[in-house]
Known about the structure:
By secondary structure, the protein is an alpha+beta fold. It contains six helices and three strands; from the N terminus they run αααααβαββ. A hairpin with a 5-residue loop joins strand 2 (about 85-95) and strand 3.
Amino acid sequence: MDKAQRRKELHDLADRLQSNVGSYEGKFSFPLEHIIACLRDNKLQSRYRLAEALERYQEKLTEPVENTVWFYFRSPAWTWEHDCGRAGWMVVAKEPPWEVAFFLEIMN
């Protein structure tokens, strides 16, 4: 998947979650507004390599990779300022959207 396709996939998921936030509450371990912000943050996503994440974590999942969307999640700045920041790879099922896994890589 090229960069433009990946960006579209992430933005499409963000749009879908944004359009009906209430129906997705409780299906994710972080607030949807934070997840949506990460999905739309092209700069954040470009800093982390999906291929490396797949190599490291894919075997830990039972959900086929083609049925999921992978993206880098980083909690907002205020969470880091209050020693509760988290960052890592989030895996979301495409249909219906729900959090399949979160691979924590950094916390404070």
